[in-house]
Amino acid sequence: MPARIVEKPAVTLDAWFAPLAAEPAGAAAFLAEVADRVARRPRVLVPGGGPVAEALAADGYAVTDTAFDSLPAQRFDVVYAGSDVLSRLLVQREQVRLVRRLATLLRPGGGLVVQGFHPDPARWAAHPLVTGHDCARQMLFLADGSPLRYVWPAELDLMAELADLALDSRWGGWYGEPAACGAPVVSLYRS
Predict the structure, then answer these.
(1) pLDDT for res 95
(2) What homologous superfamily is domain 13-72+93-111+119-186 in, according to CATH?
(3) Are 111 and 168 in contact (CB under 8 A)?
(4) What's the pLDDT score for residue 186?
(5) Which of 94, 79, 127 is CA-nearest to residue 6?
(6) Could you tell me which of 69, 76, 23 has the C-alpha nearest to residue 48?
(7) Most CB contacts within 10 A, which of 46, 48, 138, 149?
(8) What is the rounded CA–CA span in Å between residue 121 and residue 27?
């Protein structure tokens, strides 16, 4: 069965991930720090590009920008899965496949950085962007009709483990904030 992917992040989806998405400089600094720990002349993959890729390139990093449906065959020191990448895949099996595919792009010792949102079902009933919730399928329906399949941090850890990656660290933002329910989360996995 083919994956159902929400093709374009809607304005509502952008607002959902705004706390981290509004900080491309923070994302670039975080990725640069990870890259510098991994390699002398690091190569970074930023699917979808945008301000994060531009900031890294401006700082002199070798950045490859491509779409998720045309990932390159080469290897990278750091691969960045931005704000809504996993949640836009509406079937868990497809999320696992993407994590595995991204893991194959890492050089030994490389890092996969996944930006997401730590679920908090208790808050969603009153959240202005959420119009529906299917807890059995881990689906949220946003005000503009966009569906998301949320991923629990422990579930993401298992997806990474299935891809032979190990959790290195998890933060609530680009500057080392503690992770919390109902807030953005940044996870770093190592090959």
Answers:
(1) 95
(2) Vaccinia Virus protein VP39 (3.40.50.150)
(3) yes
(4) 94
(5) 94
(6) 69
(7) 46
(8) 26
Distances, alpha carbon 59 to alpha carbons 25, 29, 101, in Å: 11, 9, 27
Give pLDDT < 50 ranges for the chain: 1-13
Q: In what order do the strands lie in the sheet with 139-142?
A: 130-134, 139-142, 147-149
By residue count, the chain amounts to 191
pLDDT for the residue numbered 33: 93
Percentage helix, strand, coil, to 5, in the chain?
Answer: 35, 25, 40
Residue that has been written with the tokens 């190990």 in this structure: 166
Please report the pLDDT score of residue 159 as a whole number. 97
- Predicted confidence at residue 45, as pLDDT, reads 94
Q: Where are the domains of the chain?
A: 13-72+93-111+119-186
